[in-house]
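Need residues for this backbone.
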């Protein structure tokens, strides 16, 4: 598996085969698929999105934006993304992204209370920020600090 800079046409490819879990999170967040797609297209146009691939199969896109020294991420994915080997791959890609961005904190949010989602983030090195309700915020602390 590998990552490379995302291409604009890949946004349509992922959103035309979007995983049910990502669709559910968008609905819970009251964000339309079209709005999420436009936001990711903006990330791609600004060079702030990666394509995650297994061979030549597009699994997901990792879009990000930086605000106040924190990288906020979104990862729309296809059903094929959800396999055990993608957790190890995701951990490596997140660490590489963090390093490339100057070792800043990386934040991801989830609108799911599914324990598998929390475990997936934890295996990638994220920590749940304790708060009530949704969204649930997960933080990947700068490498070498072990703290938020």
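Answer:
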């Amino acid at each position: 598996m590998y990552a490379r800079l995302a291409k604009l046409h890949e946004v349509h490819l992922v959103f035309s085969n979007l995983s049910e879990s990502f669709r559910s999170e968008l609905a819970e967040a009251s964000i339309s698929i079209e709005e999420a797609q436009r936001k990711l297209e903006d990330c791609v146009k600004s060079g702030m999105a990666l394509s995650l691939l297994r061979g030549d199969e597009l699994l997901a896109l990792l879009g990000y934006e930086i605000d106040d020294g924190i990288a906020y991420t979104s990862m729309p994915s296809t059903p094929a993304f959800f396999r055990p080997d993608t957790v190890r791959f995701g951990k490596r890609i997140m660490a590489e992204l963090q390093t490339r961005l100057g070792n800043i904190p990386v934040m991801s949010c989830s609108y799911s209370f599914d324990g598998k989602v929390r475990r997936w983030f934890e295996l990638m090195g994220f920590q749940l920020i304790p708060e009530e309700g949704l969204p649930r915020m997960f933080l990947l602390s700068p490498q070498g600090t072990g703290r938020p």
